Amino acid sequence: MSEDLRKLFDYIERNSNSYVEELRRFCKQESISAQKKGIEECSELLLNMMKDIGIKGERIRGKGNPVVYGEIKGKKDDYILFYNHYDVQPIEPLEEWVYEPFSAEIRDDRIYARGVADNKGNLMARLMALKSILELYKELPIGLKFFIEGEEEVGSPNLRSYVESMKEKLRAKGCVWEGGDKDVRGMPQTYLGAKGILYVELRINTAGIDQHSMYSTIIPNPAWKLVWLLNTLKDDKENILIEGFYDDVLKPTEEESRMLEEIEFNEEEYRRNFGVKNYLLNRKGLELLKALVFNPTCNISGIEAGYTGKGSKTVNPSWAMAKVDFRLVPKQKPEDILGKLKAHLKRKGFKDIEIIEHGYYAPAKSSINSRIARVTIETSKLAYGQTCKVLPITPGAGPMCYFTDLLDLDVIGGECLGRPDSKIHAPNENIVIKDYIDCIKHVSAIIMRFSALS
């Protein structure tokens, strides 16, 4: 490790308590995009925190929640772009939280808060890395740009329009995405791409009001129609039955397959953490990991119909609905899959189904040989003591395509924060404090080393 990085890492350690408090301060502000709670307040807080560090920032408004944009120059007239989001998931079910969701409580060397792992911890690690470099060395070796949206947790419905309108502002030499994670043994891992997503609501109405269930012999039951519909989408071998669904699926390259073989996926530990007895189709080993990373999905996210309260209520419901998400792989296009879904339902006789779109974006991936990928991977060992493993694409979806496709940027996941037991999107979301400090070190190393790597 070079002397400048050694001094920087020591400085980060000495100031770690203040960096933790800055993260707690940010996490105490709610910002639930799905419920429109705290968005304005959180974006204002974030903007002020960025300005206090020395970032020239602004809130850019368009349709939907504002984007917080920041920029700071360095010695070289090059820039790294950081993507993050300040919005978080809803907190329900509230009764399952051990600590208040926005209290940012510290227990057993972890911080508990909604959004601390997804994505406020990564965002604050990046700001604290910048703060450390400026305080110690007074200037940056390279310029930085921050694009922080407020609608990622609701599918980024307005992100494309923001990116298109900000093309000149967002020019950079590489993009670091919202962050990588650690596996069950604490091994760091990041990714070069993300699956796409298509999220739809399928709604069936058969009557103006619910009726007594004795009328179910003469009035159609929408719940049954919904069950029959869903049964046409996928078989019991996990094959998606929509005609043409797999037509554009891009097979993984030999390099991507080798990358996957280097991932140490502890399937037993994940199985215990998730509380499941067996994986789908009893997959194991590399076959299990390949399915997770390379396979597209058709998932039922939720179903609702009729009476679901305590006791009995004999009704024939008037409506039923299901929310379904498709995770897509390169080169599937969400618009194409939506069209094929509509054609499938019509062909199967479900012509009276209302399809409500709840957001979509395409899959994306970058090369492991890009400049931003190489520096991120090479500096990871300095921060974590071991080089991070790299997934060709993450099983999770994200709007990375707008940056790879519209801005022609190489993208990598970035520093490694969350763990399998971080309970992202669930009650008691948390991170390990040491992981957060290590992430600050990793980001600082990326910034310091990027301009030296050609």
Task: Describe what this molecule looks like in 3D.
- The protein is α/β, with parallel strands linked by helices and 454 residues long.
- It has 2 domains: 3-192 and 366-450, Aminopeptidase (3-Layer(aba) Sandwich); 196-361, Alpha-Beta Plaits (2-Layer Sandwich), CATH 3.30.70.360.
- The protein has 13 helices and 21 strands.
- The strands form 5 sheets. It has a 6-stranded mixed sheet. Strands 10, 12, 14, 15, 16 and 18 form a 6-stranded mixed sheet that branches. It has a 4-stranded mixed sheet with strand order 17-9-8-20, with helices on both faces.
- A hairpin with a 6-residue loop joins strand 1 and strand 2.
- The longest helix is centred in the first third of the chain and has 22 residues, at 116-137.
- The two termini are 19 Å apart.
- The mean pLDDT is 96.
